[in-house]
Amino acid sequence: MRLLLRCDAGPSTGVGHAVRCAAVAEAARLSGHEIVWSGRLDGLDWLWAGLLRLRWTAARPLRAVTEPPPEPPGTVLPPADSTEELMALCRDHRIDAVHVDHYRLGTDLRDALHAAGIALSTVEDFSTGRRPGDVVVDPNLGAEAHPRPDDGSAVLLRGPGFAPLRSAARRARRRRAIRETDGSLAPSSGTTPRALVVMGGTDAAGLLPRVVAALAAADVPAEVDVVVPNGRAVDLPGDGPARFRAIPPVPDLPAAMAEADLVVSAAGTTVWELCCVGVPMALVRAADNQAEGYRTIVAAGAAAGLGGVDDLADPEPAATVLRELLTDPARRDALAERARTVVDGEGANRIVDAIAAAAGAVSDTEWRKHVEDTTLTGVLHARPATLDDAELLLSWRNDPETRRWSRSTDEIDLDAHRRWLAGSLDREDRRLLLVSDLDGPVGTVRWDREESGWEVSITVAPERRGSGLAIPLLRAGEEAVRAWSGAGTPVIAVVHADNAASARLFARAGYGDDEAGPDAEGFRTLRRTL
Hints:
With 530 residues, this protein is of the alpha/beta class. Helix content is 35%, strand content 21%.
């Protein structure tokens, strides 16, 4: 099936339509379909970089592309702003089905497309953007019970079970579940709660300064990351118990959500990703077309409400809500538990299968499931090690295979190891991470600050060797480096010349030989920039 996606993204329209279409595109490609785009899609490198990209041979062994190009998957055509322009694109490019996530195209699309034998899938948000279609998608909570006229639409996909989410949301849901078992959620971790502020891809309503003011007025300790869209600026408070940091739009926003203890978000497309991940959230009604969705999600107990744009003119009411959320873990847990039941993350797959059926095509669901299961298996979470991990880390360190390739091959006793661990945890130039999946710890990653970058050492738990976890283990450690050092951080790996397995591992992970050759002890240095 050749599927054309029609959407726009920009300062006035936001990026929600493009994010939803990106999820459909990702699911369609994994299902064996071909994607064509029509729309204004500039400035979305962060979105394209976060999509799952794969390579496979004829036998289809799965391998993720390490650094996908920042471009949409498929061919991009000019924006079609009328039925006639859309039909011309469909004729010229042999389109089988069209998926429209755009409010301003007319209600006459279905008849024109039917005349050419093309199926129409269309997205509406309650009554906004409504038009007849072969497949009609309304992903809002309560949509299935909302009155809708009978316009002859054949298939109605209504409710958050059909929210089109990127596969990153399901991976983040797994990551969040791991955090709930590895003790890294505040306050069980003994750390200050972390908040993430995201007002959509463009902050079209200019809400960031007001939300930041409300968080500052809450006057409680918190680590606050504020996602600042390109072309926007916001003044962040430099004093008070909350510490603020501006970050650019990130390719894997769901992963950032999974690391937060509270997310403050506009009540748009991001809400469904937050529900899927299972993160406590406080929502702002950023636009009139968000009013019904905002009301239903807050009434369902899946989010706290901060009101609309005008409600934030005075920061104190929102500050009261945020203060409770940041200081009451039980309140956050209740929101997260309810949110997690709202969205399962399979909406994009369901939409693609319905479109394929309407177009007389078939999705390769077996391959798609294989890809999804494989990528979920590789989801790991890294947390800072503690003194309570001493005996576990020592057992891994003293394993004969581990010692064989270490610079120091001697076995270490528990007392010496405890002293080493305590000293390591106090050092500013060392970061020691324990990495887990849903089944428990899988290994450790240690970073040591050297003159030319952070040097990595990884240890796979002896009982988990042979499970294909070495690359995911390394990636989990690299994500932690980016979180504290930012993109562009140089990292190095020192590998013994005879350790072919480690050399292959780091080569696959993008580390290159510095060509200086082995040192006197036979160790080579490999380098990469994150």
